[in-house]
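Apologies for my clumsy wording, but are you able to produce some protein sequence, whichever is easiest, and the tokens describing how it folds?
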Amino acid sequence: MADKQQRWMVPLAVLGMMMLSSLACIAETRDVDGFNLRRVFDLAAGEQRTGDQVVMAYEINLETGSVVDGDVTLTGNQVDLSGTVDGDVVVIADRLTVSDDAYVSGDLVVCVKNLNLSAQATVGGEFKEECDSSSRVSVSKLIDSGWNSWREGWFFRVSSAVIGSFLFGALAALGTVVVPRPLVRMSETIRRSPLVTGGVGCLTMVVAVGLTVVYVISLLLILPAVLLPFVVLFWLLIALLSLLGWVALAEPFGIIVFRVLRVSEQPRMINAAIGGITLVLLLRIWSVFWFTAWVGVLATVVLGSVGLGAVLLTRAGTRSFARRRD
């Protein structure tokens, strides 16, 4: 008995170590490839940043003596610009203060509610007050720039895949404790009839999308806006059932993983946790490179259909699905 317990404690220990690693990834992703996301951002005197910078924070301070060699986009509640920026600056904020020591070699484009611009501040290019558009920067460009800077870093894509896999693994393990019997029924259905569950799930999604398209078209013609809450609730229900289907997929996938590794039978919670982590990792890892992203999308559609079909065939795990044989 002790030997059996030690066997399943090994993958559990590995899971714990991976969870600790994910916390480190969360901390690191707050400042990636020139994209900064935090509550307070301070660039102190003497500090220098090279390359374009995108900062999103509640309070932003570029202190006197700080230097940024590149274009800067700042969005927040309160922005204090006192440093040197060798490039263009765009600011979207509730309150902007540009002090005497501020130096901007390029354009300064602002979209702010309250502006305090010192007459001693130096702006080498044009000063523009506008929120809709500019020759180089706009609100939409700011959002796109921030998202692209964050998304295009390989570290962000890898760490987000790892973190997502751990969260789903924890959810799958929790599901085996909260709703054990329904998950067993759905998992058994997936193992016995993957093609049937996949077909039912795929057909359901096709019908759901088709009905939504018909509704959108009718919305443009006869304005049945009263049905909109029902459409939203319908898709919310589809999303919840799909999530339940993914949780049901985790345990069978974990069993496959342990069989491949030639590890003896493990408790259901461990199967679900390891299966959920491995499943999401295998799906998300394709997104690291843009030219392989389609593989992950295709696999997600196929496996998602299988999980959704199992949920529907077992009525969310409330009854077993017996496939008829001729």
Residues 34-151 form one domain. The two ends are 44 Å apart (CA to CA). The chain has eight helices and 14 strands. Confidence is low (pLDDT under 50) at residues 1-33, 132-140.
